[in-house]
# Entry
Amino acid sequence: MGIRTPVVGSAVGPAVDSEVAELVDKAVSDVRLSRDEAARLFALDEHSPEAFHLHWGAHRIAWQASGGQALIYAQVGIDARPCPGNCGYCSFAAASYAWEREAELPLEDILGYCRAFSENGVHLVSLMTTSVYGFERFLETASAARAALGPEVALMANIGDFDARQAEALREAGVDVVYHAVRLGEGSITAIPEERRRETITAVLDAGLVLMSGVEPVHAELDGDMLLDRMMEVSSWPQVCSGLSRLRHVPGTPMDGTRLLTAPRYRQLGSLFRLLAGSRIPFGSENTCWCNGGTNPRDRQMFPGNEQIAHDVTRQRQALEENGWQVPDRIPRQFGYRR
Ligand code: SF4
# Structure
């Protein structure tokens, strides 16, 4: 399916500033924007025609980079135990633990989710734990999940920090992808040194694991220069999928009252990130969606059991297809999720 070029400056819509149009064209041509150029787009009014033009450019890049394909991801949250990471937005943080009681999925439930997600056509399953879930234990769980998923579904780990030797062990256990981010305000809104997060990302890449990351948590009280610097940095990392992740309020956590971005501003910044990432990162929020099972740091109770999965995956697939994306049966090898 082709993409129609929007009419710029015609009688049917307001003109888009020519400098902005040129910058968007440049990004669509896969030329990396400079920080000054990105700052020009960052400063746009979120309700302006130019901000909407960024959105068009982001969509076009996502389409070009993925060949019009979209993927369905699933997360299985394994535990909800008080975590010393103490991230100010997380319901598991030990200092502001927001769950009524500690929770952990038994292995048979984790594998049940894996089988159900795989059978229903999910492309990637992420196993997420707090930083107190033992590493050796995670290797055993990941290894069992690898077998339950079958050969075509990518397995992702979203766990605490680890070193180079542990990164190799994850690979050997069958993990393909690792989600890891250096959070905005790491070390101040969290109890984890920023350097430690960066070392883990280096270990991921050195071990030949595939990286997925993002800019998070994004909210309205961030310093603009810091946010833009981080967007420039993260969009330059080698990844299969990346984007912005907006702060969500979790009652009882320290960041519950933090001012949130408006939806148009979030869309503008997400689009700018996509322009910066270019086609080197084939997937982002435009062409992926998530299903959930187990625990979640943005919630205070378990998702219901895996009876809902067929319905959830079908709904997500339909939503992507209604937006014109093609959802492949299995993850295409060319994108490098599976070794
Ligand atoms: S976000 Fe992760 S590291 Fe931070 S408190 Fe929650 S589980 Fe721990």
User: Anything to note?
Assistant: The chain has one domain: 65-326.
